[in-house]
């Protein structure tokens, strides 16, 4: 069975389309998140993560072992049980707008 020129061109076009459509752009996780996520704790006790005020029951603050603090924030995912996301840097803001950060 010999392939004609038109059949070869059609086969090549189909092959190129299939390979081009299945390619995915891979982004490394370090490129997606250049700075660590921060939980801001104000002097009055209010906790803000990603511009969202969190209730005290959804935040656990713990010592990171290097003299700083990290936090675990409860995440609610639809159709899945809730879970805690950890390793979030805690940043405490004092009344004078001074920023105290325990980052790295």
Written account of the structure:
The protein is built from 2 helices and 7 strands. By secondary structure, the chain is an alpha+beta fold. It has a domain at 36-101. Strands 1, 2, 3, 4, 5, 6 and 7 form a 7-stranded mixed beta sheet that branches. A hairpin with a 7-residue loop joins β5 and β6. The longest helix is centred in the first third of the chain and has 18 residues, at 5-22. The mean pLDDT is 80.
Distance between the termini: 67 Å
What level of helicity do the residues show?
Answer: 10-25%
What are the low-pLDDT stretches, counting only 5+ consecutive residues below 50?
A: none
Beta strands, count: 7
User: What percent of residues are in strands?
Assistant: 35-45%
What Rg do the Cα atoms give?
25 Å
Structural class: alpha+beta
Overall shape: elongated
**H/E element string?**
HHEEEEEEE
Mean pLDDT: 80
Largest sheet at a glance?
A: 7 strands, mixed
- What is the tally of helical segments? 2
Brief overview, please?
By secondary structure, the protein is α+β, with helices and mostly antiparallel strands. 21% of the residues lie in helices and 36% in strands.
Helix and strand topology:
Layout: H1 5-22, H2 29-32, E1 38-42, E2 47-49, E3 52-54, E4 59-63, E5 69-75, E6 83-93, E7 99-101
Parallel strand pairs: 1-6
Antiparallel strand pairs: 1-2, 2-3, 4-5, 5-6, 6-7
């Amino acid at each position: 069975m010999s392939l004609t020129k038109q059949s070869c061109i059609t086969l090549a076009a189909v092959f190129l389309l299939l390979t081009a459509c299945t390619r995915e752009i891979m982004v490394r996780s370090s490129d997606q998140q250049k700075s660590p996520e921060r939980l801001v704790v104000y002097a009055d006790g209010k906790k803000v993560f990603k511009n969202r005020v969190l209730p005290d029951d959804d935040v656990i603050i713990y010592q990171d072992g290097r003299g700083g603090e990290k936090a675990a924030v409860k995440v609610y995912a639809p159709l899945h049980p809730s879970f805690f996301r950890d390793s979030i840097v805690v940043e405490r803001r004092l009344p004078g707008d001074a920023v105290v950060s325990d980052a790295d």
